[in-house]
Amino acid sequence: MSSFQFTVQLQQHTPILHFQHTQDGATLRATEVKPKLDKWIYDNFEKICQLKSFDVSLKEHFNYHDKKASIYKINIGKADNEEPILIRAGKFRKNKKVDQYQDLDKENIRFIEGTTYFAQESNIDSPIRKETIENKVTIFGLMLKEGKKLDLEIFTFNNEIKKFLQFVTPLFFICKNFGTRQTKGFGSFTVTGTTNDLILNTIAHFFVYKYKKNNISDLDPSYSRLIQMEILFQHIARDYRHIKSGKSKYDVDGYGKSQVYSYGQKDPAKKYNWEKKHIKQEINANKIKNVDLKVEQPKRLSYKSTNNYFVRALLGLTEKYEFLTVPNDYGKYIVKVEHLPEGENRKERDDNKIERFASPLTWKIFNNQIYLFGNELNPKMLNKKFKFTYYLEKEKNDERSMVDLMTPQSFSLEKFLDHCFNIDKTRNNQDQNGPVHNYKKL
Q: pLDDT tens digit string along 237-267?
């Protein structure tokens, strides 16, 4: 091996959602890893130097704002993958007329259901045939065969850069996921030899908020790797719903109120109502085709405030929400969300417009353990105005407006997460208004 390069081997913990799943050896792409590594190093350089001293002049070599030629190159080897995995948010159907699980088995389609990846639900229908799925579904999960590793080679003529990258590469892979839906645990890799102590110490050093899920009782080590991954992703999906939107009565452990809702009712100084109440009130006051919202939980939520805020946006901005209807002849109510930016002219407003906002929280899976960590909220999401409009799925031409909502002027992510996980032990674990279970603060 040349003295100007070094190679690390990567261990894969969770599938990477990949649009090139039909290509032999497809895996992590250098075009994703290198820009992300540059940005992570540049944004965290001072924190890195707290762990080990490096010349401060090295930082500018990773300045992702500067378009000059890079001082190093990354090459990623060809992956020895298992068969692609069909990933979906919903569950497959099994009843007197349809047995999609039998279809999947017959067609030899590997799958993980009940995850947070919603993008291709409409492309999965009965009867399930491999050829149809491969034509309709654009993204599959890719996973190295058990025991296989992935070579990542870094080349540079600068010896100081080489030493620096040798130090930071294992830390970087602990902190970042890759591919689609990466904040929800997909695309997790570590450098081979990464110890549990290094994982815990790195999380503690680079993140303000960090939690670990304990007591995953349904995770049996005798299960296949695929089933174990499915169980872990289903835990993340349920916990994410419980935090952001609330759990359905059809969830494994039953109905649970949204933590966004319950936190807003708890804080005596800053009581608020989340936007779901506002949305339902607006629709009920101006129904389309006299179609009602479906009420899943008969018990009404209690509200102690008249202040409505768009709080869920702080945990990740989505373009739309969906609400079930009764009768459902016209489909669901679709609620669209759009930021209304400030500015004296169109250019300023276009520049200030928030189109997307990633969740400040990231789930990671290492060695069948679930971690959740994050940093401070981006202040640009606070005190911002959003426009809400709605229509029925099958009546798209009749789109109606709602009253605009603001995001909160301030919001403590730490207090919110401590509330979610009942860190102060003041909440009733068995109540439907209770916390998300089994998370320990690190």
A: 999 999 998 888 778 777 888 999 888 877 6
Structure-derived torsion over alpha carbons of residues 88, 91, 95, 100, reported in degrees to the nearest 10: 20
CA separation for the pair 187, 25 (Å, rounded): 15
Tokens of 195: 């110890």
Nearest Cα to Cα of residue 293 among 320, 261, 333: 333
> Residue 289: left if φ>0, alpha if ψ -120 to 50, beta else—which one?
left
Per the document, the length of the chain is: 442
**Cα–Cα distance between 49 and 303 in angstroms, integer?**
48
Half-sphere exposure at residue 132, Cβ-oriented, CA atoms within 13 angstroms: 11
Which residue, 104, 119, 190, 142, is CA-closest to 25?
142
DSSP code per residue over 73-128: EEEE----B-S-EEE-SS---BSSS-BHHHHHHHTT-EEE-SSS--TTGGG--SSP
> What's the CA gap between 160 and 166, in Å, rounded?
10
In the chain, the amino acid numbered 299 is K
Note if the bond before 327 is cis, omega within 30 degrees.
Answer: yes
Cα–Cα distance, 126 to 101 (Å, whole number): 11
Tell me the residue type at 214: N
**Unique residue bearing structure tokens 């080990």:** 52
Tens digit of pLDDT for each residue in 28-86? Answer: 999 999 999 999 999 999 999 999 999 999 999 999 988 788 999 999 999 998 888 99
Name every residue whose Cβ is closer than 8 Å to that of residue 250 and which is 6 or more positions away in sequence. none
Asked whether 168 and 48 are in contact (CB, 8 A), the reply is yes
Question: Is 423 within 8 Å of 431 (Cβ atoms)?
Answer: no
Kindly report the backbone phi and psi dihedral angles of residue 125, in degrees, each rounded to the nearest multiple of 5, phi listed first: -145, 170
